[in-house]
Amino acid sequence: MSRPLPPRTWLPLALGLGLLLQLLVWLGALGAEALAPRLPWLAGLSLALSLAVAALALFALAYERARAERARTTLEEAIDALPASVEIFDARDRLVAFNKRLVELYPHKLREFQRGASFEQLVRASLENGGVPEALGRESEWLAERKRQRGTQTAPLLQRVHDDIWLHIFERRTPSGGIVGVRLEVSELVREQQRLAASQAHLQALIHAAGSGIVSLDTEGHMLEVNPACERLFGFPAAELRGSHLSMLVNNLPAGPQDLARARDGQEFSARHRDGHELCVHLVVAEVRTATTHIFVGMLTDLSERKRQELRLRQANELLARQSTTDGLTGVGNRRLFDQALQIEWQRSARAGTPLAMLLVDIDHFKQYNDHYGHVAGDDCLRRVATLLRSCVGRGGEPVCRYGGEEFAVLLVDTDLAGAQVVAQRCLDSVRLAAIEHAASPLRPAVSLSIGVAACVAQADHPAQRLIEAADAALYQSKQGGRARMSSHMQKVC
Ligand SMILES: Nc1nc2c(ncn2[C@@H]2O[C@H](COP(=O)(O)OP(=O)(O)OP(=O)(O)O)[C@@H](O)[C@H]2O)c(=O)[nH]1
């Protein structure tokens, strides 16, 4: 179905037709012979047409007015429906149109929002009500600045108005010199930004005050930011560290921060201070991935002092352990060490079924030695014999111990009686060859040893003491047999 032509289309057509008829009437009136007989008819038609044109013109006017009214209503409804406020000022900066949202934003200015009100009047009304907190106390200056900037900003103006409402104000000049302003409430956004800024400030303070070094890294491991603790730890100023690779500080890093982040509890690394001294640091790295960033944050804790203390403690403990199992006079093991070693080796022998042997060694007529040469020389003699015994025991792990007074005990692991006798003979020979003078000895004028040898395969349910008793019995035999010799315990020990 074709649409009817609007009145503004008919009007020129009817007007043209009317003018044509008028022309014909005038031509007839001026004596055109062909038209003369039709003159009354033409005049009547022309009059009717003129009346029709007038009626049409009136109709067209009413139609256009209704159309304009509808368009205006549509526009007003449209701008009222916007979530933002809209205000339109003419070239003289007088209010031409505005929407409901503007009144909602400034309910106390309902009276001032009249068409024709100037922008300055409206702003002054706000200032008088204290509606612009940032202008308090300097209203005139603020107004002058606001007018100067009006319609020229490229970015929206952020303004706080009453009741802590924040607005983004967009103003644009129209080609005819007017100004269209849009005010969008962004209070939630601003408050979110304020919360974010507060939490960032909080975080910054924490990072600044942290005792551990904190460093942010790009995905390659280059340092982006470092905190003061990091500067202190490595001795480099932040400016020098930014952009450098973390490997400048930490040795033997894995390929990238991604690998570091995998070790959730972190790892220990050796590191370097600027002055060259070695550090030990614990490094734990976390990945930070957001919609716009992908970085890593590392926390570096200096373990150097703790490590030094641990080393000192370990050394002190080792010394203490050594001291508690070492004979202070001779430097060989003491009785405690012998007892501990015997327990361990007894169990091992029982488990493995391997033989275990021991020598109980006694210096002959040592009382006479002391009496003759004095205790200091006696001590020296004990030291020399201990050194000789140690040199006779081939395996480093086998303990030579001072068992008490002038008695020594030697434990020989994985050694049967024959093997133990070989060692015992070596000890006798060694001391004999050393020819330590013993003028008071009734045997001969040199220090000699008596040795008791015992060996067995241990049984777990028998006490290790049995081996000592057997060696002691054998030693007794040596003494009884005239000293400077060894005797072996030939009966079954276990
Ligand atoms: N100088 C010194 N003498 C010690 C030490 N411990 C024990 N003695 C001495 O060693 C001597 C041991 O004497 P005895 O048990 O009678 O044995 P002995 O004189 O060697 O006689 P036999 O063993 O029978 O040959 C004692 O005089 C102790 O004082 C020591 O640490 N230093």
TrEMBL record:
EC number per UniProt = 2.7.7.65
Q: Which reaction does it catalyse?
A: 2 GTP = 3',3'-c-di-GMP + 2 diphosphate
Can you provide one Gene Ontology molecular function annotated for this UniProt record?
A: diguanylate cyclase activity
Q: Which residues form the PAC domain?
A: 265-315
Q: Could you mention a single GO BP entry for this protein? A: negative regulation of bacterial-type flagellum-dependent cell motility
Q: What are the alphabetically sorted keywords of the record?
A: Membrane, Transmembrane, Transmembrane helix
Q: Which InterPro entries match?
A: Diguanylate_Cyclase, GGDEF_dom, Nucleotide_cyclase, PAS, PAS-assoc_C, PAS-like_dom_sf, PAS_fold, Rev_trsase/Diguanyl_cyclase
Q: Which GO terms describe its cellular component?
A: plasma membrane
Task: Give yes or no: UniProt keyword Transmembrane helix.
Answer: yes
Q: Which domain of life is it from?
A: Bacteria
Instruction: List, for all copies, the residue spans of the domain called GGDEF.
Output: 354-491
Q: Please name the CDD domains in this protein's record.
A: GGDEF, PAS
Every copy of the PAS domain together lies at 199-243
Question: Which Gene3D superfamilies does its entry note?
Answer: 3.30.70.270, PAS domain
Residue stretches spanning the membrane? 41-63
Q: What class of enzyme is it?
A: transferase
**SUPFAM superfamilies in the record, alphabetically?**
Nucleotide cyclase, PYP-like sensor domain (PAS domain)
Against SMART domains, the record matches this protein to:
GGDEF, PAS
- Protein name in the entry: diguanylate cyclase
Protein's organism: Roseateles asaccharophilus
